[in-house]
């Protein structure tokens, strides 16, 4: 029993392509979005979030990325705009701008740095959800937002009562909490950690928001497809086969760096990362390429 997927089931946490000089590459953005939907096995795209370098793009750039992707893919995929900041007023403004641009939904991270109480976090998220008519996916990622900013099970249950708060992108690494909230609410859970897609799906999650899907979308999708077909053994094998690539891509450097290194090697839109991120070195890029080749090769 899974909630109906309010944002599709197979979302890529899409990078933001830049030119060689570091400017926004809107033509590359559109091409990448079409690739991820038409060939990458994705029925949803999450823009302007962690993998999309939201911390170093301007509000105007975020709006331009969203509009370019919406024009490129239309209604062939759910387009979810990351709008979360540490400032409630700024987040509301970004949410309204995304709604005006035509986004299909909003991703809202818990407010960071200020270390608000749980009551403050709940009120922040409810205020953003009240600001537009768009459905909202909460983003629970305490490793990035800081200690004390994780959403508690009680806060998630409260937020589930809001008519527009529909889902959670779960990067909390707390399967007990996730399972309890899935059991006691109608929130649709999306795994935000590639190594946990299968375990969280087994608990009743709806789908994933995947960084690895930028480069291996069909292979990531195949894990969930096997579960849906009732073939847990195959799903387990496919999930295990992805883990070395997940480990290499996500350990030691941010996933954005890994994706852009792989895209550069393949001639795909991506370009450089923006500081303070640093590009992948030649040796690390070589490891990434070999791990990806192993995943893409036909199973023996």
From TrEMBL:
What positions does UniProt annotate as the active site of this protein? 139, 169
Q: Which family does it belong to?
A: Belongs to the DapA family.
InterPro entries hit by this protein: Aldolase_TIM (IPR013785), DapA (IPR005263), DapA-like (IPR002220)
Q: In which pathway does it act?
A: Amino-acid biosynthesis; L-lysine biosynthesis via DAP pathway; (S)-tetrahydrodipicolinate from L-aspartate: step 3/4
Checking NCBIfam families in the record gives:
dapA
Q: Which organism is it from?
A: Streptomyces xiamenensis
GO MF term (any one): 4-hydroxy-tetrahydrodipicolinate synthase activity
EC class (word): lyase
The family database entries (PANTHER family) matched by this protein are listed as: 4-HYDROXY-2-OXOGLUTARATE ALDOLASE, MITOCHONDRIAL, DIHYDRODIPICOLINATE SYNTHASE
Superkingdom classification of source: Bacteria
- Check the record and name the CDD domains matching this protein: DHDPS
The protein here is known as 4-hydroxy-tetrahydrodipicolinate synthase
Keyword terms, alphabetized: Amino-acid biosynthesis, Cytoplasm, Diaminopimelate biosynthesis, Lyase, Lysine biosynthesis, Schiff base
Taxonomic placement: Bacteria, Bacillati, Actinomycetota, Actinomycetes, Kitasatosporales
Quaternary structure and interacting proteins, as annotated: Homotetramer; dimer of dimers.
Instruction: Return the EC number.
Output: 4.3.3.7
Kindly state a single biological-process term from the GO annotations of this entry: diaminopimelate biosynthetic process
Q: Give me the gene this protein comes from.
A: dapA
Kindly indicate whether the keyword Lyase belongs to this entry: yes
Question: Principal place where this protein is found?
Answer: cytoplasm
Gene Ontology cellular component list: cytosol
User: Where does it reside?
Assistant: Cytoplasm
């Amino acid at each position: 029993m899974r909630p109906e997927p309010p944002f599709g089931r197979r979302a890529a946490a899409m990078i933001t392509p830049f030119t060689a000089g570091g400017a926004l590459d809107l033509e590359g953005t559109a091409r990448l979005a079409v690739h991820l939907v038409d060939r990458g096995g994705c029925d949803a795209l999450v823009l302007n979030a962690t993998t999309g370098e939201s911390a170093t793009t301007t509000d105007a750039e975020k709006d331009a990325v969203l509009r370019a992707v919406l024009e490129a893919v239309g209604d062939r995929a759910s387009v979810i705009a990351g709008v979360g900041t540490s400032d409630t007023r700024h987040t509301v403004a970004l949410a309204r701008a995304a709604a005006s641009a035509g986004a299909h939904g909003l991703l809202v991270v818990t407010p960071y740095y200020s270390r608000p109480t749980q009551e403050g976090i709940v009120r922040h998220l409810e205020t953003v959800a009240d600001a537009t008519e768009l459905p909202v996916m909460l983003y629970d990622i305490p490793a990035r937002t800081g200690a004390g900013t994780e959403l508690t099970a009680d806060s998630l249950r409260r937020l589930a009562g809001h008519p527009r708060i529909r889902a959670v992108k779960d990067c909390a690494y707390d399967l007990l909490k996730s399972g309890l909230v899935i059991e006691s609410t109608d929130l649709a859970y999306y795994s935000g950690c590639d190594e946990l897609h299968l375990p969280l799906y087994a608990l009743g999650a709806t789908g994933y928001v995947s960084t690895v899907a930028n480069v291996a979308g069909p292979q990531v999708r195949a894990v969930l497809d096997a579960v849906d077909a009732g073939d847990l053994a195959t799903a387990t094998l496919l999930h295990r086969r992805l883990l070395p690539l997940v480990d290499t891509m996500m350990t030691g450097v941010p996933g954005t760096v890994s994706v852009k290194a792989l895209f550069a090697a393949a001639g795909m839109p991506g370009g450089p990362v923006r500081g303070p991120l640093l590009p992948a070195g030649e040796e690390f890029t070589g490891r990434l390429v070999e791990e990806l080749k192993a995943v893409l090769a036909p199973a023996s």
